[in-house]
């Protein structure tokens, strides 16, 4: 990974990590305070199968503020509707990231089938600003985006009784915006992996 970091710095590129996660109407439970003998109860309004999927990028470059870029995708509830991101969704996310970051990207992500889809690989091969590397199998501890999901679940989503899917989306957006404006949180997610990005 250090070699990849040096490669990104040498090219003047952003080192970008990607991951996706799904969130449902059932809130994650977290510790809280209450009076002795009065256990807090979070009442959930029905068990909705509707999920919100989010693909996120954490972006690092020496001498620049770390960035978080994300895209939500709602499950429309249709039986034949796609619930996860397609290769076109990833193409559009990477194109938008390239425009926002204003420079080449060295992308590091996991071995998800859609990440290795032939159409996506063909598209990526034609972009001189994009270099892709894959994480080892079963290595979520090397992906700083996992830290973003942890911050969301322990903070903005924990013990919240979501009334509607829109309520869930609102909380997700609020949490992600909070993180976006605090680059030290994004840096902390990288530090948790034990990886660093240093100029050559």
UniProtKB/TrEMBL annotation:
Pfam families: DDE_3 (PF13358). Residues 15-168 form the Tc1-like transposase DDE domain. InterPro entries: RNaseH_sf, Tc1-like_DDE_dom, Transpos_IS630-like. One of its GO terms (molecular function) is nucleic acid binding. NCBIfam families: transpos_IS630 (NF033545). This is IS630 family transposase. It comes from Streptomyces chromofuscus.
